[in-house]
Amino acid sequence: MTVVTPLSLQQCIPDVELAALSETIEKIERLKKERNAIVLAHNYMTPDIYHTVADIKGDSLALAHAAAETDADVIVFAGVHFMAETAKITCPEKTVLIPDLDAGCSLAESITAADIRLLRERYPGVPVVAYVNTSAEVKAEVDICCTSGNAVQVVESLDVDRVIFLPDQYLGRWVATQTDTEIILWEGSCMVHELFTGAELREYRQSHDGVEIIAHPECPPDVLAEADFVGSTAGMIGWVKDNKPKKVVMVTECSMSDNVALETPDVEFVRPCNLCPHMKKITLEKIATSLETMNHEVVIAPEMAEKARRSVDAMLKIAV
Ligand code: 13P
Ligand code: SF4
Asked: How far apart are CA 284 and CA 242, in angstroms?
C-alpha cells in the first residue's frame, strides 16, 4: 500500500486544464472532510486522479487490505466495479461508492456463479481459486480469492495436487509455470492485456537499445516469455523504483506509465498505449459528483456478502 504524497498539480495536469480541474479537486477535498470519506485509487487511474485526490493508491491486493483497515465512513473507489465490491465485502458497515456503475471488467464478465457450480460437478473435491477480478456472486461460490500479487502463494497455501483457477487463463498459465500444483483453467482473458504480442515486444528490444521489459501476468505466454520481470501493477512499480532502469516498457494499461514516469523522472518510458475503457470511465468530475450525491452505492445481498467474505478473508490472511 502507498500513502499518497501529492505531486504539485502543475506536474501532472496541463496548464490549460489546471484552473478547471483545481476547482473540482478542491470540491472533492472539501466533501471528503465533510463525509469522513477516502478515495482508494487503482494504479490505472489517470495522473489527475492518482497524484491529487487519491488517499491510498495501489494494486488490487493493497486496496483490498486498505479497505479492510480504514476508519473512514465512506470509501469512494476510483477503479472498477469488482474492486468496489471487494471493498464492500471486507467492510459491509461502510458506504462504498463507485463513481460510474459501467466501470466493469472483461474478466469479471466472463464467468458466473452458475459456471462455478458446474465446475464443481465436473471436478468434485477440487478447490476453486478465483482471481479478485470476479463478481461478488462468483466470490461467494469459491474457496479462496487471489490477486496477481499473491496468486502463486494462494495456490500453494492450499497444499493440494490440483486446483481450478479462474477466470484469467493467462494468469492461470503463468501461475502454472511457478508451482508444481496442476492448474485447471477457465478461458477468460483481459481485453487490454491480451492485445500485447511477443513480436511487438521483440520490436521494442530492437528499436530501444537496452530497454527493460516488465509485464503484468494477465498478458499471453508469448509476451511473458519476452519479459525481464513479471508482476502485479504494484510489483511492476516497485521494480522500476528499486532498479531505476535507463529505459523501460511497462506492458500493461498505459496510464500506469504516466503515473510512474512523474515519480521517476530519470527513467525513460517506452509507452505502448492500451487503455482499459472501464478504468477510464472514472474521472475527477464523476468522483466529485459521487461524493456530492452519494451515488452509486455498492449494495450486495447480506447472505451473498457473508459467503464472499470467507473467500476474500482467506486470501487476506495469507502474508505475501
Ligand atoms: P493488479 O491487482 O495487478 O493491480 O491488477 C488488476 C487489474 O485489473 C489488472 O488489469
Ligand atoms: Fe479488467 Fe483488464 Fe480492465 Fe484490469 S485492465 S480492469 S483486467 S478489463
From this structure: 30
